[in-house]
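Practice problem: predict the structure.
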Amino acid sequence: MIKKSKRIISASITGSIHVPTMSEYLPITPDEIAQNAIDAANAGAASVHIHARNPETGQPSSDLNLYRKIIDKIRAVNKDVIICITTGGGLGMTIEQRGAVIPEFKPELASMNCGSINWGLFPLGERYKEFKFDWEKEYLENTKGQVFTNNFEDIEGMLKIFRDNGTKPELECYDVGHLYNVKFMQQKGWLEGKPFIQFVMGINGAIAANEYELMNMKQTADRLFGENGYEWSAFGAGRQEFPICTQNLFLGGHVRVGMEDNLYLSKGVKAKNNAELVEKMVRIMKEFDYEPMTPDEARETLGLKQSVFTR
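Answer:
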């Protein structure tokens, strides 16, 4: 039996929010992304959340060959860590591009976005006068007029792909309304089994990352699913990453850290890799007598079955 003091640490390796100008340490190439994932797992992450990027420019990519290189390198070294592939992709990608990773790789876990939001990255671009690559400034500025679209038709279609390929969705909820969407999915029969919900907090255009809104998300989820009717994780974007994760430990939830969400180890100190962020989370956990789960303990908790590329 898994101890109540154990929690899943997920490491989000590179994502599609930050651009290379923001940190020289942001992993971009398949080798960098895979090595960061391996090191994060060695540091205590039971799950690694994977996006791909163009290795020449760092731009978010839906190229399945890049995903294959990342996955193959991770599995050549680590057979155990849970590989959670994104279906969020990057801004501007079609739903077909975002979902193509599921039938191709049949992962045991993948992210699944539970509603549409404004995704305002443009204030980040205002902090920089010069950019390393030509695409970066336009990519950030364009978010002022974009909506990250995940309508009910998209959700229904994506969940069918998940079911057909034996993949469990990590349900990304960026606001309280998305929790109601998850309940609706259950009622319609689109979603099977005990849901695993990720509270994504601090995105400009969705719910803020603070202690009040974390409690808002948790209490709403409790009302909708019952206190024991779901598993959940939480994180805050940027400097709220560790405060939200720490509070979520006390609420009974799991945690996510990583360079997708936060580039800094502490104020003014950039993280040199994802392992440093996982190590800090492990230190915080140990201060309060919590322990990170192993990948197999996380599988048991989430009801996962190992996918074809774990063997």
